[in-house]
Amino acid sequence: MRWVRRPLLPVMRLWRRNIQLKVVVTTLLMSLGVVLLLGFVVIGQVRNGLLDAKVKASQSQATGGFAVAKQRADEAASGTGDDVATADGRPAQNVTEWMSDLVSSLSSGGQGAFDVVTLPASDEDGAGGRGQRASGEVDWSRSVPADLRERIGSSTTAAQSYTRITYNNATKESQPGLVVGKQVNDPNGDPYQLYYLFPLTQEEKSLSLVKGTLATAGLFVVVLLGPSPGSSSGRSSRRCGWRRGSRSGCRPGGCRSV
Questions:
Q1: Which CATH number describes the domain made up of 45-205?
Q2: What residue ranges do the domains of the chain occupy?
Q3: Dihedral pair phi/psi, residue 187, rounded to 5°
Q4: Residue 78's closest CA among 98, 61, 92?
Q5: Closest by alpha carbon to 46, among 245, 207, 160?
Q6: d(CA 163, CA 133)
Q7: What does the pLDDT look like over 105-163, one tens digit per residue?
């Protein structure tokens, strides 16, 4: 252990003997602690504000999409095209093409802003035309959490969850996102799950910019709060002058001839 302690001995001696060094280091550490604390508080508030605004905008967009899907299902159900009827007497519709058109139409208004995914309400419903569909090459199996699908399947209200949006295209990088989903009915009255996926890339970039700005500002604050070299040399000069004055016979009340 001696070879470890030996290089530290000069520093330890300097620390014990130099009061000015203790003051400088203590001031810098306290300044750094204050800057870090304020930085965490500001970053937390900015992050919460960005996410709250994004969640409200996403919920509003998804609610409008759910209403449009219901309206189109009702319009398609009221038409007459097939002789086969559903259990409630309405003419049965081929929902395969209808579902594809719905996903394409809903996603066309949000190029880059969101993607749309439809999933069957259960594994057995895929054969009825309500199979998985996704816009923007989204990998729905990895982008839509399984627990959210279970919540949507057991409720008629909308639900949401944070996720990582991944794509089937290898050239597209995954990104953080928010998923808002709801179970709705197709023209035949059969349920399926409709999801809106909103990327949070812009919010992540904004938060990174805030972090960088706070780090730069914090560095300047720490430097400004630290003692300046001029004040240290001034105190050292006064101390040396006092010592020289003491040797020549000077006292606080004046100097006397020796």
A1: 3.30.450.20
A2: 45-205
A3: -60, -25
A4: 92
A5: 207
A6: 18
A7: 998 877 778 999 999 987 655 555 567 899 989 999 999 999 999 999 888 899 999 99
